[in-house]
Amino acid sequence: MINFVKKSLILKKKIILASTSRYRAELLQRLQLPFTVVKPDVDETPLYGESPGVTALRLAVLKAKSVASELEGALTDTLIIGSDQVADLNGTQIGKPGTREQAFAQLKNMRAKTLIFQTALAVVDAKSSRVQSRIVPTTVLFRDFSDAEIHYYLDHENALDCAGSAKSEGLGAALMAQMNSDDPTALIGLPLLALVEMLSTEGVKILQ
């Protein structure tokens, strides 16, 4: 907490996480920067014909811009972070299951297959309206697990709010055979390596 206070005194720009995801908040806390959380007002329904990566990128930007538009004062020195993730199974979008039945159906369809988890990140400068955005993909090969293993997983892991029901930082790791990504935090929901670079571009140096 002391580190947070010291940084809040010298940080020239406020930081807002445009997400109510506890996973993204926990990841952002790793950078030891003071930030606030604001729920973005965004319809997350994919557009007709939209690819998974395009959907994730569009929503990440929309989330950040939605919060930016609600700030009082056009000259607010604030950076807003938006992120979104969509699982891609051969071009088909797989989102959050919401229910156990849907989670079981998703996992049954994913076993022994390779998916690309498209994690998009956006940083919007509320003062200049400058937008930085990118996609950090993670390729995951799932094991050929049984129906019984799916039920065991869902009995012991709350993954209904995870894209594809795959909670990699928890028991979901047991579902996966291989994983490939440039950023190990991308699959959890917030690509920190890319975020550090984006914040640095906006003058926020993590290690200063």
How does this structure look, described?
The chain is α/β, with parallel strands linked by helices and 208 residues long. The chain has one domain: Maf protein, CATH 3.90.950.10. The chain has 6 helices and 7 strands, in the order H-E-H-E-H-E-E-H-E-E-H-E-H. It has helices at 2-10, 22-29, 52-70, 100-110, 147-156, 192-201; strands at residues 14-17, 36-37, 78-89, 92-94, 114-125, 131-142, 176-181. Strands 1, 2, 3, 4, 5, 6 and 7 form a 7-stranded mixed β-sheet that branches. Strand 3 and strand 4 form a beta hairpin. Helix 4 (100-110) crosses helix 5. The radius of gyration is 18 Å and the shape is elongated. The two termini are 17 Å apart. Mean pLDDT is 91; it is low at 1-6.
What's the gist of this structure?
The protein is an alpha/beta fold. It has one domain: Maf protein (Alpha-Beta Complex).
Class computed from helices, strands and strand pairing: alpha/beta
The CATH architecture assignment turns out to be Alpha-Beta Complex
Mean pLDDT: 91
Kindly, what is the distance between the CA atoms of the first and last residues, rounded to a whole number of angstroms?
17 Å
Instruction: Return the CATH topology.
Output: Maf protein
Low-confidence stretches: 1-6
Strand share of the residues?
A: 15-25%
Integer count of domains = 1
Based on DSSP secondary structure assignment, what is the total number of beta strands? Answer: 7
Order of helices and strands: HEHEHEEHEEHEH
Helix segment tally: 6
Measured as a percent range, the helix fraction is 25-40%
Which radius of gyration do the C-alpha atoms yield? 18 Å
CATH class: Alpha Beta
